[in-house]
Automatic annotation (TrEMBL):
EC numbers: 1.1.1.103
Organism: Thermococcus paralvinellae
Domain Enoyl reductase (ER): 16-345
Pathway: Amino-acid degradation; L-threonine degradation via oxydo-reductase pathway; glycine from L-threonine: step 1/2
KW Oxidoreductase (keyword) present: yes
This protein's name: L-threonine 3-dehydrogenase
Site feature location: Important for catalytic activity for the proton relay mechanism but does not participate directly in the coordination of zinc atom: 152
Cofactor(s) in the UniProt record: Zn(2+)
Compartments, as annotated in UniProt: Cytoplasm
GO terms for MF: amino acid binding; L-threonine 3-dehydrogenase activity; NAD+ binding; zinc ion binding
């Protein structure tokens, strides 16, 4: 094995990142070293790249970026028992304490002491990477790395879509960014009867159709609420899934969902949102779920089984694949411009 590796590193507290050559790390107590087979860009990586306000308060350069991954274990550190060399793994991003009230009551996804892998520690945009063994998820060997790396965001989408069953239900998805696109394929695989997608970008509405959306709407040119009512016998959709983080989309979705319907909110809003709670939620008797991260480990089982079922349509979502990291700046700029679905790197060129 090589002793040097290439990594995308946030070297300075400023816009961008650098490709660096550094030593391959050694796994410490409770850690494993993987050969990274595939890694994908998350919106959070983009925020770190852009050095937005959140990143400025949270990230401590120099740090290797990235947290979505599929890789092969090549070394295990002391004290690691259930992961072996040769295992093919992905990683849960939330490093939980196992001791707080939420962990003790099975709600690891909202652990009070959560640290985020690749945000609060070195990540996986590298040829080799350290993963905390407690966060490793063993993959069946028949899932290709480019799909296995998507399991973490797929987990966000699964928790959003499947907070309650969608079989036979009409669904509105607002926002067809990478996560909304994953939401579309999960909703279709789970048997939603009609998936309507509201998304202003022409490129992403096209992607949404390729992934399986039944109807796409441009919210900047069409009346979302009227379109949804027309498509649902005037009733509104059974389920509203918010994947955009746009306050206007939230309001339109709450108007478009039928009374006693279900709402899942994943998108993060840039500012406080003001709403007519009485008429949009309370008198409509809506059930509203806030979604964060993934349930440990129930969501991973669901995601893995969905992948193995072959029912997810992921190929149109993976719009960009790069061998090596040489063109990482192009990848980030395309993503910033909204001209991608998921971007996947295969760090080893051979
Ligand atoms: N709750 C959680 O645990 C997590 C939340 N997120 C959040 O989920 C959201 C989706 O993530 P990505 O897909 O990566 O983000 P993205 O920013 O790539 O996608 C958002 C999409 O919403 C579209 N949009 C903008 N205004 C709209 C409107 N008025 N109506 C409908 N669509 C509109 C945009 O054109 C874009 O395609 C983001 O807000 C992100 O911060 C991401 C990861 C985890
Ligand atoms: C912080 C992240 O980017 C992550 N995808 C999450 O689900 O929390
Ligand atoms: Zn992420
Ligand atoms: Zn905890």
């Amino acid at each position: 094995m090589a002793d040097k590796m290439v990594a995308i590193m946030k070297t300075k507290p400023a816009y961008g990142a650098e490709l660096v050559e550094i030593d391959v790390p050694k796994p410490k107590e409770g850690e494993v070293l993987i050969k990274v087979l595939a890694t994908s860009i998350c919106g959070t990586d983009l925020h770190i790249y852009e050095w937005n306000e959140w990143a400025q308060t949270r990230i401590k350069p120099p740090q290797i970026m990235g947290h979505e991954v599929a890789g092969e274990v090549i070394e295990v550190g002391p004290g690691v028992e259930d992961i072996q060399v040769g295992d093919y793994i992905s990683a849960e991003t939330h490093i939980v304490c196992g001791k707080c009230y939420q962990c003790k009551t099975g709600n690891y996804h909202v652990c009070q002491n959560t640290k985020i892998f690749g945000v609060d520690s070195d990540g996986v945009f590298a040829e080799y990477a350290i993963v905390p063994a407690q966060n490793a998820w063993k993959n069946p060997k028949n899932i290709p790395p480019e799909y296995a790396t998507l399991q973490e965001p797929l987990g966000n989408a699964v928790d959003t879509v499947l907070a309650e069953p969608v079989t036979g239900k009409t669904v509105l998805i607002t926002g067809a960014g990478p996560l909304g696109l994953l939401g579309i394929t999960v909703a279709k695989a789970a048997g939603a009867s009609l998936v309507i997608v509201s998304e202003p970008s022409d490129f992403r509405r096209e992607l949404a159709k390729k992934v399986g959306a039944d109807v796409v709407i441009n919210p900047f040119e069409e009346d979302v609420v009227k379109e949804v009512r027309d498509l649902t016998d005037g009733n509104g959709v059974d389920v509203f899934l918010e994947f955009s983080g746009a306050p206007k989309a939230l309001e339109q979705g709450l108007q478009a969902v039928t009374p006693a319907g279900r709402v899942s909110l994943l998108g993060l809003f840039p500012r406080n949102v003001s709403l007519d709670f009485n008429n949009l939620i309370i008198f409509k008797s809506l059930t509203v779920y806030g979604i964060t991260g993934r349930h440990l480990w129930q969501t991973w089982y669901t995601v893995s089984k969905l992948l193995q079922s072959g029912k997810l349509n992921l190929d149109p979502i993976i719009t960009h694949k790069y061998k090596g990291f040489d063109k990482f700046e192009e990848a980030f700029e395309l993503m910033r411009a909204g001209k991608t679905g998921k971007v996947v790197f295969f760090p080893h060129k051979k």
